[in-house]
Amino acid sequence: MRLDTEWVEFETAGKTCSADCARPSAAGGQVPGILVVQEVWGVDEHIQDLAERYATAGYVALAPELYSLGERPEELAPARIAAVKAFLETVPPPVWTDSEERSRAVDRLPDGEREQITGSMARLFGPRDWEGQLQALGDGVRALHDDPACNGLIGAVGWCMGGAFSGRLAAREGGLAAAAIFYGAPPSAEEAAAITCPVMGFYGGDDARITEAVPDFAEVMKRGRAGFEYHVYPNAPHAFFNDTRRSYRVDAARDAWARCLTFFASHLGPVTG
Fold first, then answer.
1. Which residues contact 202 (CB under 8 A, 6 or more apart)?
2. Which of 5, 78, 169, 172 is most buried, by the most CB atoms less than 10 A from its CB?
């Protein structure tokens, strides 16, 4: 399918946020929108590829670059983030989430590289402005709503950190018609109780840090006004959907992709016009 792709900007809290946008060229009318929420790595080639996949499926896809808010720190420059991601691919997966193990692995790097990796990891995995970035994503939903190619029906989907954002966004954005979470930490019980749109989740059986919290999230959702369906893939690790990393598991990713498209098709309605 031919796509129209461009970087756009929208305003949020007095700042400008850049976003990758992809639209199906031949739709012939308005289509639903999908807010594509980045992993910790930012809107890299993988996230841009996912935005284009959703556009190819018949949606306007918008992927806000959360690191573009204000002046982008040098530590979060795309090349610096790519270096961190490449480094983590050289160490065992448990090191990714263990700060002490990460530090020991970084200490073995050459001096110049060690300082750069350390500085960028501190930014990537340190304290995050959840509220400011959630507001930016909410303003991204409104930017999608105002896009002439969008029919006003909007879903959100995110991976890892973005999955956590997608769940929390569903709790506060009444403009969302559906939300999908790929191995993101579930929202708090209070937030889950506020969700009014249907949610679908995809999790790895070997990703205990995230997946063990999902049944409690499901219990809260049962008492609420929205449905929650989730799938746990046996032997799949965290980030099993990311086909640029060694964690990728093709069978789980294929099944999750088909289910996610069906989910959005069911809740975002047909193309209008």
1. 180, 181, 182, 183, 230, 231, 233, 241, 252, 256, 259, 260
2. 169
